[in-house]
Amino acid sequence: MIGTIYNYYAGGNTARGFYNLFESNLNSLNRIYILKGGPGTGKSTLMKNIGQYWVHKGFDIELIHCASDLQSIDGVIIPQLKAGIVDGTAPHVIEPKAPGAIEEYVNLGEAWDSKKLVQHKNEILEIKEKIGDLYKLAYETFAKALKIHDDWEKIYIENMDFEKANELTRTLIEKFFKNHAAEKSSIVKHRFLGAATPKGPVDFIENLTENVKSRYFIKGRPGSGKSTMLKKIAHAAIEKGFDVEIYHCGFDPKSLDMVIVRELDFAIFDSTPPHEYFPNRKHDEIIDMYKECITPGTDEKYKEKLEEISTKYADTMKKGTAYLAQAKTFHNQLENIYVQAMDFSKVTKLEENILSQLEEMKSY
């Protein structure tokens, strides 16, 4: 029997810079391997290999994807073992709570030939500086896009019936939770369902909701109360002691895009671009915030202004994405330098050592 793979992001290239949500996904683990090493040293491959090993043994795993490289992952978690392996290099630096007792550093630098890298020292420094400059430009551009998005939201906020939105939220909370309560403290996981990547927006909604019975697709416009609704539903779940997965917006992490409460078998998410989906299963349901809460005719009344804002926003986001793509090109050059200096047979031995330790944990 093959285990289930859940995919998400715990770090994102956002309008507020690089945003780290790793902590809540790691704090229940008893063993965390923190990988150190440069780009191209095999960290992602090592984690993928270990993940595949356990998923083929019937264990569910979580793959934490890299927002800056669609082919890489930043971590793998095996919940049944209460163990995980994460990339501990910048920008997602992992702060250990109990080094040696919980966290263990694994240095992939043991497998490189420093003499070869010294020959490329100046090139490495130049490329890293270019990458840093490009990420700075990307984040500044996304910040500009956020201000444009605020103007977009303002139009709908000024035409919104907040009491109707509150009533709709109260109705949903009653529907989801009724008189149910869990006799425990809630475990809360903060994540991203998608990310701004060098190839544009990517999301894992279909994967994350695959095994959830009831899915609620929130439709609407910017500023129509989608995130506020999700925050209130998440708060209700926590108050009642249910474990909850809170998925932040990969563009603005202060907003929410999805809440999943697996104990009650439901997921509710913002189903508008860039992660727009439509019902295709029996228990799927649409919640239309525009229809329920916005003054009729708002789209038509502000048509020209909305088109102008939408175009400006899309153009700005494309510029930000282009900076990420350029940074990825330079990152590839950096990886190639390190690949040429690596002895991957030594990385394989490190991988085997981690697997051996995990196997021992399985028998506890």
UniProtKB/TrEMBL annotation:
SUPFAM superfamilies for the chain: P-loop containing nucleoside triphosphate hydrolases
Gene3D superfamilies reported for this sequence: P-loop containing nucleotide triphosphate hydrolases (3.40.50.300)
> Which domain of life, per UniProt?
Bacteria
Q: What is this protein called?
A: ABC-type cobalamin/Fe3+-siderophores transport system ATPase subunit
Organism, by scientific name, is Aeribacillus alveayuensis
